[in-house]
Design brief:
- There is one protein chain.
- This protein is about 40% helix and about 15% strand.
- It is of the alpha+beta class.
- Strands 8-9-10 form a three-stranded antiparallel sheet. Strands 1-2 form a two-stranded antiparallel sheet. A two-stranded parallel ribbon has the order 3-6.
- The longest helix is centred in the first third of the chain and has 20 residues, at about 90-110.
- The chain starts with a helix and ends in a 15-residue tail after the last strand.
Length: about 350
């Protein structure tokens, strides 16, 4: 097992972690397995209370400017996970780390035009089908189409998305970039599928993602791994009726920051996100057609004012940083979800990413 641990840490460029990695092996219904984790002592020192939001700061990592530091944060957060994640082999684990790295990098570059009811894509890459949504044009590379739709530094323009659809594009881009290298056959199938129909919403979750945690067994509220997709729920019944404001889908970027697809240079802290969602209830109005809307300018002003009052910030965070309640319940819950979402396995022979028939 020591040899396997050495190979794993070498592939993850993390051999210096060897003194703190605990390995064990055993047998279950699936056969023999090996399990690796960060020692309890080191986990408590680097992420007390399983709070990984400060991990990067404690270890003085610069995950934005040093790619190796981002990989380091991903590896450490996985090793100190509160729930065992079973990988079918070392290759899948290494690819999972790379996919998370890809997703974070894509999320950092993503900037969209905010709109809750419109959708746009670059016309030289995409076309809209009434029966299924946006598909890529024949001959257009999927990676280029996804990047151009989400990254203004590639397209030179901003396109309107919902935050939910944006996370799908970012996750898909991160997964597809790894498939190019580790499973080109599956990548070609994905490329062809997206010229016929996109996979969206619940089907996207079922096909591409796995979920960790549950309402019955929630993950620690401040445990995040870079590359996680997370939902922050709007716990206010009235403002959650406004289209697009049921909650907020984001990608955890590492370093205690969450993606801001509208202002990518101003990513959210956990406090920022909680304050924003809290103040949605104070910016609710009806437009000329009678539709419920949220005035984002009012929200921004209220958040800025609240941030000048430490006692009020503390009061709001106590309310908002509770676990969310089940669908349809609005009593005493907060905005914190109990689960995280991340990619399925991608290698030939072990992948559980099964594309539907076209």
């Amino acid at each position: 097992m020591a040899a396997t641990q050495q190979v794993l840490l070498t592939q993850l460029d993390a051999t210096d972690l060897a003194p703190w990695v605990v390995g064990r092996q055993g047998m279950d219904e699936a056969g023999p397995y090996m399990q690796f984790s960060l020692s309890a002592i080191q986990t408590a020192a680097w992420a007390p209370g399983q709070n990984t939001l400060g991990l990067s700061q404690r270890l003085q990592l610069d995950t934005e400017h040093r790619p190796a530091d981002l990989t380091r944060e991903i590896v450490l957060a996985l090793l100190m996970g509160p729930v065992v994640v079973a990988f079918p082999g070392l290759a899948e684990l290494v690819s999972a780390v790379r996919i998370r790295h890809n997703i974070v990098q894509a999320a950092r570059k993503t900037t969209l035009a905010f709109h809750t009811s419109q959708a746009e894509r670059p016309e030289d890459c995409w076309t809209y089908k009434e029966d299924c949504g946006f598909v890529i044009l024949p001959g257009v590379p999927l990676l280029s189409a996804l990047a151009k739709a989400t990254q203004p530094e590639v397209s030179g323009a901003l396109y309107a998305f919902s935050c939910y659809r944006a996370t799908e594009y970012v996750m898909l881009l991160g997964i597809a970039e790894e498939l190019v290298h580790c499973n080109p056959v599956l990548f070609r199938q994905l490329q062809q599928l997206w010229t016929e129909r996109p996979i969206m919403s619940g089907e996207f979750h079922e096909v591409f993602l796995r979920e960790q945690g549950s309402m019955e067994q929630p993950l620690p509220p401040r445990y995040f791994v870079p590359g996680d997709r997370i939902w922050f729920r709007n716990p206010d019944a009235a403002s959650s009726e406004a289209s697009g404001y049921e909650g907020s889908w984001v990608i955890y970027l590492g370093g205690g920051l969450f993606s801001n697809f509208w202002k990518r240079h101003k990513p959210y802290t956990l406090s920022d996100k909680c304050l924003e969602i809290y103040h949605w209830r104070h910016a609710l109005y009806r437009d000329a057609q009678g539709n419920e809307r949220i005035d984002e300018d009012i929200v921004e002003a209220l958040v800025a004012a609240t941030q000048q009052n430490a006692a009020e910030v503390e009061r709001i965070l106590r309310l908002m940083q509770r676990y969310r309640e089940p669908r349809g319940v609005y009593q005493d819950g907060g905005c914190m979800d109990t689960t995280r979402e991340f990619s399925r396995w991608v290698h030939p022979g072990t992948t559980d990413l099964v594309l539907p028939l076209q």
